[in-house]
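From the shared-data thread, chain only:
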Amino acid sequence: MSSLNIAEEMGVALPERAATTTHPTRTFLWSVRRELWENPSIVVAPAAVASLLVIATLVAAVRFTGPLLLKLAERNLALSTVAIAPFLPVPMFLGIAMLLVAIFYSLDALLSERQDRSILFWKSLPVSDSVTVLSKMAVPIVILPVITFILAIATDILIFLIETFALLAHHASAVSAWAGIPVLSLLGLMSYAAIVVTLWYAPIYAWFLLVSAWARRMPLVWAVMPFFVLAFFERIAFQTNHVRNFIGNRIGGVFAIAFTPTNTTYGHNHALVAHVTNDSLGTLCTPGHFLATPGLWGGLLFAALALILIIRLRRSSDPI
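Structure, as tokens:
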């Protein structure tokens, strides 16, 4: 006799069984955590670049702070015109590291689980192919930009402390060095740049994930070879460069679309610093132009269609 029947005969009320339903987002979040556990380079690579930038700033502060202060005094230049210079390479180098990590992660994300046969284990779990694919896509378009942004802020804070201590050690005014620097505008500029670059590169990540879900080996070759073949064929057959221009625009065109072109002479640090500190965020960024660009929405539509195809491919995928 079961415990339920015994309880009914004795007139004892049993507590209701606890609900076993899982929140829809919980499986997705655990899938994202799995990607972070299995791919430590997502955090390690940007952190390594940030550490190198901090070390380079520390070495430069020790060696060049004294001579730089003397040169500024001779030319009657304000200290604030060069104090911000060490901050400028931070988002650039961290952004390059983010793109490289995102590209190589996307190329390997769905191929590696077929090569090491772990796809059999993951498919045995109650996790749908849609959740798995979306969690992998979330890494380059959400996780990596957030990690990079946090590391950029942390790196800038460390650089600020290093420069402040270096100035105080040489009896210079740290207050005059940081006077007039628009911190909020610079943070807004970094946030805007991270968003537009991520949206613009979303179809590239989706394409690499698609290749990763289909290819059996050498995903990088399969990802780039069709475009080189098409560009070569177009040039030979039609003497045009539409494919090459399309590739160049997708790789580097976001900066011409999302930002105002300037005539600043970037060969001189003080000119660049003056441009950054004097221009407001509204004059540097052109979100309206960026959102009105057909290439943005066409790329996002391609990314959505690619995700649908990737989910279908993973559903029928077998170990290699």
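The chain has a mean pLDDT of 82.
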